[in-house]
Amino acid sequence: MDRRELLKILGTASLSAYLLQWAKASDERNVKEFLNASSFGTFTWGIATAATQIEGAWNIDGKGASIWDTFGHKKGNINGNSNANVACDFYHNYISDIALLKKMGFGAFRFSLSWPRIIPKGTGDINLKGIDFYNRVIDQCIENNIEPWICLYHWDLPQALEDKGGWLNRDVIGWFTDYVSFCAKTFGDRVKHWIVLNEPLSFTLFGYGTGLHAPGHIGLNKFFNAAHHAALTQAEGGRVLRNLLPTAKIGTAFSCSPIDPHHPQSERDIHAVRRLDAIMNRMFSEPLLGLGYPYKEAPILHRIDQFMQQNDEVNLKFDFDFWGLQNYFRVVVDGNPLIPILKASKVAAKKLGNEITDMNWEVYPDGLYRSIKQFSKYPVKEIIITEGGAAFKDNLQNGEIVDEQRTRYFQEYLKGILKAKKEGANVTGYFAWTLLDNFEWAEGYSKRFGLVYVDFETQKRIVKQSGQWFEMFLKE
Ligand code: BGC
Questions:
Q1: Which end of the chain is more exposed for a tag (fewer CB within 10 A), N or C?
Q2: CA atoms within 13 A on the CB side of 257
Q3: pLDDT in tens, 234-290
Q4: Which element (helix H / strand E) includes 243?
Q5: Angle at the Cα of 305 (from 303 to 310), degrees rounded to 5?
Q6: Is 412 noted as a catalytic residue in this protein?
């Protein structure tokens, strides 16, 4: 159609509106149809794992017990009464597993160090065989041109330290920094990226508040006690790394969730949103910036005051090189005066009308986009999505896993990152959760998050369609 015909149809006045609309639609099409890795520019593409969830070898070669070993060995704590004794046996399969992530085209591997594998009792004697294992993993990455990213704490506190009070004991700050210092000196010659803590809210709330996770304590005060020590520890850990490894990139990883009112007009719901946002998104991040805990929106946080000591407010601060964001779901709340403390109840994901994952979490790609937007309002140097992924029921058919839902999930969430980047957010990397189907904490082996399927009887691996999609996407 030539321009004259077009003008006849549209009329001059509507032409510019039409063109504008066309340009907008084509921009959206670009994001929708032409999603490729190069649109992200210089970007770290990685895959994330955690020691307890994949390593197995729980008592081999001198490893000490962690709180997850003890917790998993008690009946009734884990779905199916399973435990992390063997998991994916990454301890013995790391060479072929690293080859898999290389084949899929990832350039970075985030794994965590098991503190009790390195220092079996948490403090004191070190375990040379444990150190040797991590040296081999790091070297294997480097030989394969994969950047090793170390997370220092993904929830597996040495049981010996839990016996002394664990995260409830303020000494944990010193125990942890000694361990960090040892790791920095041992691995820092080759490891240039460090994450201090994985999701402090999750391990303090579930481990010390609700009892759902190891070590299984229940109590609000315990939660706040552990949380304050974790908040101090994250900053202190950052300082130790910065002193010992001044050129390394140092970050820490937060769970984050956008929170919406069930009824946008309801004052009660809106207040509930503010309270929850303060606890779920701001409690561990804002103290780092010197803003303290968000008491105003969540006065319950004053319960932390009893654990505060002189200079804590200053010591809670640390200027990380990057913040890791991990978003798995959005939260929609009703203000509910009948619920003690939070005065809010969560609307079940299945009532929200969107697809849900096998964890009963809503698929809501805008959630990651919104979390990035929320966190990029802070003066943070870089944001890295240090985890993102979903559990779905996988069907093994003719030796293949066609996990369309998971593939679509990644595509949609990645579009959200691209959108946030185009709007100016400084997101510089993405780590898919996760390499292998694994030990999903209290859910045991019942939920599969991997890009690679694991037959837990034989330890055989099969790259799922989602993993193949990543391979195509990253190699394009
Ligand atoms: C944790 C992972 C976990 C994932 C899915 C994240 O919060 O860091 O260890 O497997 O959620 O539940």
A1: N
A2: 24
A3: 999 999 999 999 999 999 999 999 999 999 999 999 999 999 999 999 999 999 999
A4: helix 220-244
A5: 165
A6: no
Architecture of domain 40-474: Alpha-Beta Barrel (3.20)
Given pLDDT bands bounded at 50, 70 and 90, which one contains residue 11? very low
For this structure, is 387 an active site residue?
Answer: yes
Q: Which of 55, 162, 199, 440 is catalytic?
A: 199
pLDDT band at 297 (very low <50, low <70, confident <90, very high): very high
**Res. 35 pLDDT band, cuts 50 70 90:** confident
Q: Is 411 exposed, middle or buried (0-12, 13-18, 19+ CB in 10 A)?
A: middle
Q: Which atom of ligand 1 is nearest to the CA of 155?
A: 9
b vs e for 310-347, b when ≥16 Cβ sit within 10 Å of the residue's Cβ?
A: eebeebbebebbbbbbbbbbbbbbbbeeeeeebbbebb
Q: What is the pLDDT of residues 61-86, one digit of tens each?
A: 999 999 999 999 999 999 999 999 99
pTM check: above 0.85? yes
Amino acid code (one letter) for 56: G
Distances (CA, A) of 336 to 42, 266, 361, 438: 46, 11, 21, 37
Q: Looking at residue 406, what is its pLDDT?
A: 98
Q: Tell me how far apart the alpha carbons of residues 126 and 77 are, in angstroms, rounded to a whole number.
A: 30
- 382 membership: H or E segment, kind and range: strand 382-387
| Ligand 1 neighbours (beta carbon < 6 A) | 50, 53, 198-199, 202, 255, 326, 328, 387, 433, 440
- Give me the catalytic one of 162, 236, 387, 440: 387
Residues 6+ apart with CB under 8 A from 225: 167, 168, 208, 307
Radius of gyration of the chain (CA): 23
**Percentage with pLDDT > 90 across the chain:** 92
List helix spans (H) across 124-171: 128-143, 159-162
Which amino acid is located at 253 in the chain? A
User: Under a CB-based contact definition with an 8 Å cutoff, are residues 276 and 331 in contact?
Assistant: yes
Test site for ligand 1: of 413, 433, 435, 447, most ligand atoms within 8 A of the Cβ: 433
Residue having the nearest C-alpha atom to atom 12 of ligand 1: 440
Tell me what pLDDT residue 34 has. Answer: 62
Residue 230 pLDDT exceeds 60? yes
- Which residue type is seen at 227? A
Q: Look at residue 306 and give its three-state secondary structure.
A: helix
Whose C-alpha lies nearest to ligand 1, atom 10? 440
Tell me which of 210 and 24 has the higher pLDDT.
210
What tokens were used for 385?
Answer: 């999505």
Choose the residue to mutate in 329, 361, 441 for probing ligand 1, maximizing ligand atoms within 8 Å of C-beta: 441
